[in-house]
Amino acid sequence: MTLVGCDLHARQQQVAALDTATGEIQEHQLTHHGEAVERYYAALPPPVTVAVESTGYALWFHTLIRQLGHTLVVGDATKIRAMVVRKTKTDRRDAPHLLELLRHDRLPTIWVPDPATRDRRALLGHRMRLVRVRTTMKNALHAIALSHRLVDGSKRLTQSRLAPLQDLPLGPYAARRRDESLELLKWLDERIRQLAEAAAVDPAARLLLTHPGVGGVTALTTVVVLGPVGRFPGTKEVAATLAWRQPSTRPRTSTISAKSRSKAIPCCGLSLSRPLAWRSATTRLSIACIRLCSAAGVTRKQKWRSLGNYSSGCSSCSATASTMTSSAGAVARVSPPPCDEWATANTAPSGRRSSGRFRGGLWSSGPIS
User: Fold this and answer.
1) Does residue 222 contact residue 124 with C-beta atoms inside 8 Å?
2) Neighbour tally for 363: CB within 10 Å
3) Judgement on whether residues 222 and 332 belong to the same structural domain of the protein
4) Could you read off the pLDDT of 30-63 as tens digits, one per residue?
């Protein structure tokens, strides 16, 4: 068996390889130009286990190791650095250190998404960027409408309000900006609708669609961000990964004004899931407002102010988002796992015990729950 500790960089990598049969350790420095990396890892006697630190722009290396049939273990860079006794950091010391942790089964591993999950993340990330561009176009058109008194304040540009904007006499360049913005807005609406439909029909998110307040995009985002939910100890960690931690109820007293203020809400999770969790929470609170207003006989605006105040950090929306993500994670935990070739091809080698908080990192990155 061959164990490899690899300190990966953008242009080169430092490698320390151990042959467990002979006990021989070899160190090499490989450049990423040409086919030196491919030839080196293809010549290693199987089975081969490669340990690297978590770093960006390493997708090509993960794909190469998978294609060669080797086992890849990705370690937590912060914990690995904390385990170094000597504070001097060099590439020639980092590679043997990774090899030593892998050899003694002390490497703190993290979960790495499989290729299918990364492809779904690309779908959702592309939609999120198109939504941001669409928001920019809407704001530009809204500014034109405000400048010519076509809308009042923050009212939305609905289809009925877009008709006067299209007939508005403007200068040649201002008219070109308006016309091209309207064309781009139609193109963005169509593309975003297609991407949302593709996300809604994904089989991995079908069970989460039964959860109140969760749509197709939010369900698929929950699945691809969480991955195998069995790696989380409880629902609090699930909520922290997706959106927000539960806000603290203890007041924060200012030493200057001696006033009690609510504590700030700590943001967690990926930028891919936070906006969707917030939107789902506000939608759920809005539905609750309508029901409460009809029962209590008060206006919706008064009830909404009683549920959550923006000056206090929107604690009601944050609490609702935290509760929704926790319960959605619980729903995903009981969903039946589909078959996944990536999980069967990257099982832990016989005789080795998985370690780390996430129960073996890539060795336990099984089917998407």
Assistant:
1) no
2) 22
3) yes
4) 999 989 999 999 999 989 999 999 888 899 999 9
Q: What is the mean pLDDT of residues 239-251?
A: 56
Determine the pLDDT at residue 191.
94
Show the beta-strand stretches assigned E in 165-295.
251-253, 260-262
Cα angle: 195, vertex 200, 204; to 5 degrees: 120
How far is the C-alpha of 24 from the C-alpha of 36, rounded, in Å?
21
Contacts of residue 164, Cβ cutoff 8 Å, sequence gap at least 6: 150
| 3-class secondary-structure state, position 345 | helix
User: What is the distance between the alpha carbons of residues 290 and 83, in angstroms, rounded to a whole number?
Assistant: 54
CATH number assigned to the domain comprising residue 67: 3.30.420.140
Q: How far is CA 97 from CA 5, 15, 26, in A?
A: 8, 11, 13
Indicate whether 125 and 157 sit together in one domain: yes
- 289 with 241, same domain? yes
Q: Please, which residues have CB within 8 angstroms of residue 41's CB and are 6 or more apart in sequence?
A: 48, 50, 64, 65, 68, 70
Q: Per-residue pLDDT tens for 153-201?
A: 667 777 777 888 888 898 999 999 999 999 999 999 999 999 988 888 8
Range of the domain at 250: 209-255+262-336
48 near 67, Cβ under 8 Å? Answer: no
For residue 136, being part of any structural domain is answered with yes
Buried b (16+ CB within 10 A) or exposed e, 219-240: bbbbbbbbbbbebbeebebbbb
- Compute the distance between CA of residue 292 and CA of residue 270 in angstroms, rounded to an integer: 33
The angle that helices 315-333 and 274-296 make with each other, rounded to 10 degrees, is 110
* Residue at 369 is within a domain: no
**β-bridge pairing 2-8 and 48-53:** parallel
Q: Which residues contact 193 (CB under 8 A, 6 or more apart)?
A: none
Q: What angle do CA 69, 72, 75 make, to 5 degrees?
A: 180
